[in-house]
Amino acid sequence: MSTLSATAVPMSTTYEVAHQKCINVDCGATYSIDEVLTSCPKCHDLLDVAYDWNKVSVPKSLREFESKWLERHNPIRFSGVWRFHELLPFAPHHKIVTVGEGQTLLQQADSVAKYVGIRPGKLYLQYEGMNPSGSFKDNGMCAAFTHAHMVGAKRAACASTGNTSASLAMYCAVTQLMKAVIFIGTGKISYGKLSQALEYGALTVQIAGDFDDAMARVKEVSKELGIYLVNSINPFRLEGQKSVMFRVLEALRWESPDWIVVPGGNLGNSSAFGKAFIELKELGLIDRIPRLAVINAGGADTLDVLYNQRNLRWNRGRARMDIACWYYDELDKGKVKADTIASAIEINRPVNLKKCLRALDFCDGVVRQVSDQEILDAKAQVGAGGIGCEPASAASVAGAKLLRQQGVIGMDDRVVCILTGHQLKDPTATVAYHTTDQDKFNEVLGSRGVTRASFANRAVAVPNDVDAIVKAIQLYS
Ligand code: F0G
């Protein structure tokens, strides 16, 4: 694992083909990619990384990317993100940072298909927890980190429910190019994730508040101290996250599935996936656009409320964001805080809301929310099929099941659920679900409305005696 400085692959793409562009159609201001921005200085809207595709040697078909597999000795082509460099060509090769991210799996999961109500062979799980820091974040972090390196940043910061901080801390520790500063909420981060940031040496700042508070503070503080911000409000992060869709298409031999189902927290993935499909279509590399389903947890359901109850839409780039502002005022007045066992998506003010609306518009999307009970049951099913995932990730499977019950997803549709984080990230919720100790169950899950563990695999308690152990194994196996 290393920072790249050698073995340049000859390509006509250089970072001169890229710029930053305000997504507000009434503004559309552009900025050089040398600038460090997290919003448009003119109108404060979100920024995209945009490309002059005429100057990029984009392959004529996605199949051409298969030839890159032969170049796996080159770290750029080994990376599951940078082997698609031509589709995110903002960085010159000598500045690209990689730790070998993106070696992830798309697996057909028939047992989960049965649970969801889809015909065997039609449901796939995309395991992004296989990334080096254990979540999808590495896809985006290598891109934001590369940009930070391009502009000479010495410190990088993020607010995090855990995975972003683990990923940032890892890139800092492996490359030694920057120092990580992470902002976390109080009691809102699982030990699995916190342990990574601490061990990788990140400066960890614990805010007396939740993720939404930490996000607001990190924006202010990083501006004041000139620290590079790597949350997904950073447009370069999302460029890296587009690669999840490139790999899904690659694993399906470049055929679009019918559905992509993804958990929604800060809405970075859904936004990135939408941008990936917009660009692939524009470049003539795909014909068919998959539909997108974004799944909130019931205790953090901003997108679901705004999309389904208040009818907030992309509206050709003129989304009524005042509807979101009013809603946030209501949350503040009612002192409503996000609350779900899926701690990674315990977010009430998603920073990428507007970009997600664009993705939903382009991909004929739908939004749903699922309860913590549904999330944990779905998670147990994913785990029972092997590899597993963390609670937030299972929202995608629970959402697919709900959409199937509602007849939105058809029995024969080809569905890809994105599993965003590794099973070992949040063992507390998993062990509580499978425990025989009712007090433990109630302590961790009861307050969240989880009343049963329908798919629990309980440990069998036996005396310290060979005969008793043999009997128990014969009885239960
Ligand atoms: N799944 C997992 C495992 C996550 O860690 C996150 C976000 C999400 C889903 C939601 O991401 O909606 O932006 O694409 N985690 C952030 C963090 C907030 O700090 O690690 P989305």
Layout of strands and helices, then pairs:
Blueprint lengths: L1 E2 L14 E5 L7 E3 L14 E5 L23 H4 L18 E2 L6 E4 L1 H7 L6 E5 L9 H14 L4 E6 L2 H13 L3 E7 L5 H9 L3 E5 L3 H15 L2 E2 L5 H17 L7 E5 L4 H15 L8 E7 L4 H8 L11 H13 L19 H10 L3 E5 L1 H13 L6 H15 L9 E5 L7 H8 L3 H7 L21 H11 L1
Helix pairs in contact: 3-4, 3-7, 4-5, 7-8, 8-11, 12-13, 14-15
The structure holds ligand F0G.
Features:
single chain, 477 residues, alpha/beta, six-stranded mixed sheet, four-stranded parallel sheet, 14% strand, binds ligand F0G
Give a short overview:
With 477 residues, the chain is of the alpha/beta class. The chain has 16 helices and 15 strands. The strands form four sheets. The protein has a six-stranded mixed β-sheet with strand order 6-7-15-12-13-14, with helices on both faces. A four-stranded parallel β-sheet has the order 10-9-8-11, with helices on both faces.
Stretches with pLDDT under 50, minimum 5 residues: 1-14
Number of alpha- plus pi-helical segments: 16
Major beta sheet, strand line-up: 6-7-15-12-13-14
Which secondary-structure class do the elements indicate?
A: alpha/beta
The ligands found in this model are: ligand F0G
Most strands sheet: 6 strands, mixed
- C-alpha geometry: globular
Measured as a percent range, the helix fraction is: 25-40%
Strand content: 5-15%
Number of E strands? 15
Arithmetic mean pLDDT: 94
- As a whole number of angstroms, the C-alpha radius of gyration is 22 Å
Separation of termini? Answer: 43 Å
